[in-house]
Amino acid sequence: MFSLKCKNRKYCFSLLLVLSICFSAWSQEQKLSLEDARKAALAYSHDIKNGNLRLQQAEASKKAALSNYFPTVQALGTAMYNFNNFISAIPILLPEDIDKVYLATAVATEVVYAGGKVRTGNKLTDIQVYVNTIRADQSIDSVLLNTEQKYWQLVQLQEQQKVVSVSKAYLDELLQQQEDLLAAGLIAKNQLLQVKVKRSELLLQKSKLSNMRKLALLDLALYTGIPFDTLLIASDTIHHVAAPELKYQQPNLNLENNSNYQLLQKSVEASKLQTKMAKSDLYPQIAIGFSATKLGTFHQDLSTDIQPIAFGTVSIPISNWWGSTKQEIKQRELQESIAENNLKNVEDRLKVGIMQSWYNLEDAFKQIEYAQENVAFAEENLKVQRDNYNSGLNNLTDLLDAQRTKQEAATALVTAYANFEIMEMTYLFRTDQLEQ
């Protein structure tokens, strides 16, 4: 404790006012919009970063496969020393022994035909790049969906806190009325206790909601990389929403542009190419090449000229026609059939999932309409019960029940709005309509 002595009261009052405003600004709540949360999540997400890294890996693999179209060039140098001499000295012709020689060779080889393995391998890498491109986009959609779900969960809890605050204000006012009536000897003490019990239950609910909101905020902050602060609040509130049929057309069950369906199509295509790759081991392999060789000694001026040689090779894998390669090809053909069956099965599930998300969205909108009606009924009922109670036509229990019903209806409306937002994002996610 401290005291401030000031002869000029007007000055002291101004100083305190300024300090109060500064403190209020310092402790002011910080608002977080949905768009800010989306941007932060896209910049922070490790899933998106990994998706981009996998795409880079696929592009590197494609460049590596392209190199198979070019010749393979090798250079070889060999030096040899013989303790007993390769060639002993020959009078007049060879004055010294030859015990050290070298061999230098350069070879370039180009595969002319390998059963289509090179071309097939490059097609597989093209598919790998395409698939990882789709998955990178899907990781962005997934992050946006999760961010929206976490954000609207936070909004839902904030709106529920507002409902509880309204109920608390109502019970506080009712409690004050009961205390006045009890002091006047117009009611029994148990009626005052009834209101206190309801108020205590409400305070407990308020405390739980506060902790749940902090937990939801922490979840959102950790997912988006936003610094956690209990003063941070979602800026969005409950607002009017349009009926789904007014915003979107009926779901299109043509899956040609559906990313999950495209991945399955590429899976079938890749399986066929892998079968073709396995069959290439049954065909002859033809290669041509060119080499240049030079042989010489270290101490004597004896060496050959560079000897250019052109050559061609043909390799016929005869044993592959009945060995393990044949069984490997059979396995690949069976895997190809499995991939085609999976495409048909998942195609049906994707269509069902799209329609399910559409019906869920319609149901969520109906839930809002019914919740709005229930709130109107509950508010009217509470008003009637309060008037009747003040007139002595009903008891306190009926009034408290009406107040609880009104609170439950308001909470249900908040839940309905948040659920609609989540169902809408889920529908857009399943139909690849999320805006990135």
Describe the 3D structure.
It is a single chain. The chain has one domain (30-430): Outer membrane efflux proteins (OEP) (Up-down Bundle). It has 436 residues and is an alpha+beta fold. Helix 2 runs antiparallel to helix 4, helix 3 packs antiparallel against helix 4 (117-183) and helix 4 (117-183) packs antiparallel against helix 9. Helix content is 64%, strand content 12%. The longest helix is centred in the middle third of the chain and has 67 residues, at 117-183. The strands form 2 sheets. A 4-stranded antiparallel beta sheet has the order 2-3-5-6, with no helix packed on it. Keywords: Cell outer membrane, Coiled coil, Membrane, Signal, Transmembrane, Transmembrane beta strand, Transport. Residues 1-27 form the signal peptide. This is Outer membrane protein TolC.
Search tags:
single chain; 436 residues; alpha+beta; Outer membrane efflux proteins (OEP); four-stranded antiparallel β-sheet; two-stranded parallel sheet; 12% strand; elongated; disordered N terminus
